[in-house]
Amino acid sequence: MLKRISVQGFKSIEQQTIELGALNVVIGANGSGKSNLIGVFRLLERVLSRNLQLYVASDPDRVLFHGRKKTPALSLDFVFDDDLYGFKLKAAQDTLVFQIELMGGAGGSCKQIGLGHGESHLQGIAEGQLRQIGTISTEILDSPDFPGDYPFRNPDETRKFAQQLFSQAARLMVYHFHDTSDTSPAKQTADVDDNRFFRSDAANLPAYLYWLQEKHPVEFRRIEEAIRLVAPFFECFVLAPSKLNEKKIKLEWRQKGSDAYFDAWSLSDGTLRFICLATLLLQPNPPALILLDEPELGLHPLAIRLLAEMLDAASGQTQLLVATQSVTLLDNFPIEQIIVADHDGRGSQFRRLRPEDYAMWLENFSVGELWEKNVLGGRP
Ligand SMILES: Nc1ncnc2c1ncn2[C@@H]1O[C@H](COP(=O)(O)OP(=O)(O)O)[C@@H](O)[C@H]1O
Ligand SMILES: [Mg+2]
Known about the structure:
Bound molecules: adenosine-5'-diphosphate, magnesium ion
Largest sheet: 6 strands, antiparallel
């Protein structure tokens, strides 16, 4: 589990360390930095998939706290149980390069796994491909004199450690189901075999649901039941490969009391988003860390309550970080799961709430009411 992150110099975050639990609900006014916090994980995703250069897109100032004049480098540290992965990226011409990339123990004994490089070395080391790392070779890395002697006594141990760290860190997904336009990825025809994982923009929704229907019928039924609660007219999905092209599948469903087939274009925006959320949260093997930005968008209060239940249930087997503006959603979570984001004019601050500070208030008010009354902060 990801226990802690430290962020320095990223977008509106000058310097923050945030402790994380199984379920983390971030609230705050517009512009307080909620999406920027989720952006930290988008950057981690890009770094680990060796797409940093694509991510920066020739504009490093955009991601550095008030630009490179004020902030020449940003650093991120991620502590998974007792292991740490971290890096510092500095502006160099029109891009960011690694000033340093580290792995090691959370206690501080770390090993530098590169410097001056443009894409992460972690996967390369994990796969045993990298012998020469930046300007240092793995022989130096593996020497007992190299600063940081965590469990790296020989190349084999270094590789194993990198493997374990990479497989932890790479199991995160930032999900985004906001697009319900006609060109929305969730509405498109998918490849039947595209079912290894549920894609971050739901582009393989029909293929993934089809796989669940065939291989995990219990979870599939649960998803259909949840959708029926929110959209009573929905009877069931009708999922099968296209008769004309067996490699393709599209989302179809049946309405109660009708034998006509409908497609994804006939779903309301909120229903389509809820279908994506239910698929993500009720599936049998979700990613280890799920990030969601304002998942309540376009959902009615009953659907939001159901969403809260699904988030809570999912947090039993996976870790979640959810940014929200919804008082209804917030009302479903205990105060210790809440992180308040505030922008103090300089930068974003993230604060975990302590239940003992609000015990008196909570006798008379719900958490959402306290937020509305500005007792918790996180309001304009
Ligand atoms: N590179 C940057 N340096 C400083 N502040 C930034 C930078 N990029 C974005 N911001 C600030 O972040 C704010 C947006 O934060 P965001 O996380 O999108 O807010 P929200 O809480 O509404 O999701 C903007 O108002 C802007 O002031
Ligand atoms: Mg936002």
